[in-house]
Give the backbone structure.
Amino acid sequence: MVAGGGQQHIPGRRIWAVRAARLFDGYALREGRPLVLIEGSRIAGVDMTGAAPSADLRVLDLGDATLLPGLIDSHVHLAFDPDDRSKQAMAEEADQTTLTRMRHNAGQQLRAGVTTVRDLGDRRFLALSLRDRYTAGTERGPEVVAAGPPLTRTRGHCWYLGGEADGSTALEAAVEERVARGVDVVKVMATGGVTTPGWGPHQSQYTREELAAVTRVAHAHGRPVTAHAHGRQGMADAVAAGVDGIEHASFFTEDGVEPDWKTVEAVVEAGIFIGATEAWLPTGTMVAPHMAERVEQRGANFARMHREGARLVCCSDAGAGPRKPHGVLPYGIIHFGSLGLTNAEALASATSLAAEACGLADRKGRIAAGYDADLIAVPGNPLHRLDTLLDIRTVIRAGRTFQG
């Protein structure tokens, strides 16, 4: 059975199918009552003929709904409780306590239609442990792409996660440790952040040479590097150091926002992914109320970055604060639609493009033969109304319907 062709149900193969009025394949909408065949954890094929299925094929017919690839949130912190403004107590927390919270948060992600998460900051490499349990099938959850504790200065941003390293030699050793432990990506805090006192978000935590040491060692082992970077200089240094992704890309100064469009030009030229952490609940107060104006300006900057060709990936930073609970990503996709992206581009930013950013483009982010059977369904047509993403009707993870 091939995409666009008729069905070929082979006796003895454990194949079932899901049908809806239409599907978004990761790039564009396809009408005509498509039938997606699933074998094990993979998509066996996509039948676009609209033909009636064979009598012996089990079909989940969702009616007037749209199938989409499972959403991918490329920036989460499963270990974080969004309602706990001070995360520093985690430094003394028992691993089992942290893991219990991570499992709960992973379940919230799945219920919101997020079938893959990239954890960009855990404690004691616990996200790797959870990743391996989900991959082995001993527990059910979203696929986890794990960075382990992010690299940061002594008492730098998120120091309590255990990733403190000062100077190029220590950074190189820290990257080697992460590779040995099996991380999927290396995360480095190029600047300070909003939630950790000591280093302001506009302040650089590492020099260009130190960041280059991180990318050199990580790339030698085939690992990508993504850099948390709010400040102008930190962003410019991270880009020059050869990172693969920039998280936040805020262009914060000490008292405002000043984008450097030459840096954006370099980002576009290098094909660096911008993790635009624009997902939050529409009600409630920000973690830092004085940042609201800056965040609004950052959104306007993202709109221009998109026009200039930047690869904007919609993500959440889930767990960072009360307006960023786990599973908040759909609100970010809706917000992307207000930044000048078409609805199809907004959806792609959290499916096919996010899969590229996470190094999973060969099997995630699309509905196509050979891809992982990670699917969600929403009522109606999200290309007309992105807010249908707030009503997830069905979640299929690795070929199995998730009951949350």
Remarks:
- The first helix runs from residue 95 to 111.
